[in-house]
């Protein structure tokens, strides 16, 4: 009976305006959506360093690291070396002048051919 | 198999999807990534996970914001260029061969 003549707490009344998801986010965080997005983007960070080693999972060890934008991440200033789990990596920016692109392409073709033979 | 395995460039045949990617080596390709990112760049290397190395990359990041009054979505794009980039394959949605249309 309650369903017919009343309303469940926290939902809109019958005939009431729909509550948007955006509003829910705003109510629970007390922030604008754009601010939430900024925080999301701020979670990304760039770490510059000398590549010490890489393993089969593309886990990366860096030495002499610098965080771009140290004002944002002061806790990273004291860190000199780090280990990055491969699965959280999106990109690795490489020094372009040290990449032998011809070698890369040949190696890729060779590997593709080898994979096919298996 | 008369083909020598050490042959520099194997015979070009298309038997599986990745062969199409192989044909795009040293060409500019379009890569759609998760989290609303797009890459355009020259393909230098890839592997079976679609990890890739791209050169002269232009990355386009699209962010959407919802207008508070009209509830319309507003899209913003930011672009940046990167001379040489390794892309981890798990973020890749699609790889498209060289584009003939100017973008």
UniProtKB/TrEMBL annotation, chain A:
<keyword id="KW-0508">mRNA splicing</keyword>
<keyword id="KW-0747">Spliceosome</keyword>
<dbReference type="GO" id="GO:0046540">
    <property type="term" value="C:U4/U6 x U5 tri-snRNP complex"/>
</dbReference>
<dbReference type="GO" id="GO:0000932">
    <property type="term" value="C:P-body"/>
</dbReference>
<dbReference type="InterPro" id="IPR010920">
    <property type="entry name" value="LSM_dom_sf"/>
</dbReference>
<protein>
    <recommendedName>
        <fullName>Sm domain-containing protein</fullName>
    </recommendedName>
</protein>
<dbReference type="GO" id="GO:1990726">
    <property type="term" value="C:Lsm1-7-Pat1 complex"/>
</dbReference>
<keyword id="KW-0694">RNA-binding</keyword>
<dbReference type="GO" id="GO:0005688">
    <property type="term" value="C:U6 snRNP"/>
</dbReference>
<dbReference type="InterPro" id="IPR001163">
    <property type="entry name" value="Sm_dom_euk/arc"/>
</dbReference>
<dbReference type="GO" id="GO:0000398">
    <property type="term" value="P:mRNA splicing, via spliceosome"/>
</dbReference>
<dbReference type="Pfam" id="PF01423">
    <property type="entry name" value="LSM"/>
</dbReference>
<dbReference type="GO" id="GO:0071013">
    <property type="term" value="C:catalytic step 2 spliceosome"/>
</dbReference>
<keyword id="KW-0687">Ribonucleoprotein</keyword>
<keyword id="KW-0539">Nucleus</keyword>
<keyword id="KW-0507">mRNA processing</keyword>
<dbReference type="InterPro" id="IPR016654">
    <property type="entry name" value="U6_snRNA_Lsm2"/>
</dbReference>
<dbReference type="GO" id="GO:0003723">
    <property type="term" value="F:RNA binding"/>
</dbReference>
<feature type="domain" description="Sm">
    <location>
        <begin position="27"/>
        <end position="94"/>
    </location>
</feature>
<comment type="similarity">
    <text>Belongs to the snRNP Sm proteins family.</text>
</comment>
<dbReference type="GO" id="GO:0071011">
    <property type="term" value="C:precatalytic spliceosome"/>
</dbReference>
UniProtKB/TrEMBL annotation, chain B:
<keyword id="KW-0747">Spliceosome</keyword>
<keyword id="KW-0508">mRNA splicing</keyword>
<keyword id="KW-0687">Ribonucleoprotein</keyword>
<comment type="subunit">
    <text>LSm subunits form a heteromer with a doughnut shape.</text>
</comment>
<dbReference type="InterPro" id="IPR040002">
    <property type="entry name" value="Sm-like_LSM3"/>
</dbReference>
<dbReference type="GO" id="GO:0120115">
    <property type="term" value="C:Lsm2-8 complex"/>
</dbReference>
<comment type="similarity">
    <text>Belongs to the snRNP Sm proteins family.</text>
</comment>
<dbReference type="GO" id="GO:0000398">
    <property type="term" value="P:mRNA splicing, via spliceosome"/>
</dbReference>
<keyword id="KW-0539">Nucleus</keyword>
<dbReference type="InterPro" id="IPR034105">
    <property type="entry name" value="Lsm3"/>
</dbReference>
<dbReference type="GO" id="GO:0046540">
    <property type="term" value="C:U4/U6 x U5 tri-snRNP complex"/>
</dbReference>
<feature type="domain" description="Sm">
    <location>
        <begin position="16"/>
        <end position="101"/>
    </location>
</feature>
<dbReference type="GO" id="GO:0005681">
    <property type="term" value="C:spliceosomal complex"/>
</dbReference>
<dbReference type="InterPro" id="IPR001163">
    <property type="entry name" value="Sm_dom_euk/arc"/>
</dbReference>
<dbReference type="Pfam" id="PF01423">
    <property type="entry name" value="LSM"/>
</dbReference>
<dbReference type="InterPro" id="IPR047575">
    <property type="entry name" value="Sm"/>
</dbReference>
<comment type="function">
    <text>Binds specifically to the 3'-terminal U-tract of U6 snRNA.</text>
</comment>
<dbReference type="InterPro" id="IPR010920">
    <property type="entry name" value="LSM_dom_sf"/>
</dbReference>
<keyword id="KW-0507">mRNA processing</keyword>
<dbReference type="GO" id="GO:0005688">
    <property type="term" value="C:U6 snRNP"/>
</dbReference>
<keyword id="KW-0694">RNA-binding</keyword>
<protein>
    <recommendedName>
        <fullName>U6 snRNA-associated Sm-like protein LSm3</fullName>
    </recommendedName>
</protein>
């Amino acid at each position: 009976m309650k369903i017919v003549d009343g309303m469940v707490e926290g939902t809109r009344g019958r005939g009431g305006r729909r509550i948007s998801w955006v509003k829910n986010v705003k109510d629970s965080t007390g922030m604008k959506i754009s601010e939430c997005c900024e925080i999301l983007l701020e979670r990304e960070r760039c770490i510059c360093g000398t590549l010490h080693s890489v393993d089969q999972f593309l886990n990366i060890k860096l030495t002499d690291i610098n965080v771009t934008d140290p004002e944002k991440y002061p806790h990273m200033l004291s860190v000199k070396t780090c280990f990055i789990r491969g699965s959280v990596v999106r990109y690795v920016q490489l020094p372009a002048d040290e990449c032998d692109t011809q070698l890369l392409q040949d190696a890729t073709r060779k590997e593709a051919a080898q994979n096919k033979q298996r | 198999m008369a083909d020598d395995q050490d042959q520099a460039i194997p015979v070009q045949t298309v038997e599986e999807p990745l062969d199409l990617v192989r044909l795009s080596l040293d060409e500019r390709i379009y890569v759609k990534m998760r989290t609303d990112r797009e890459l355009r760049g020259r393909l230098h290397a890839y592997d079976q996970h679609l990890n890739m190395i791209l050169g002269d990359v232009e990355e386009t990041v699209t962010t959407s914001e919802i207008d508070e009054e009209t509830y319309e979505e507003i899209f913003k794009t930011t672009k940046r260029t990167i001379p040489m980039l390794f892309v981890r394959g798990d973020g890749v949605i699609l790889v498209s061969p060289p584009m003939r249309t100017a973008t």
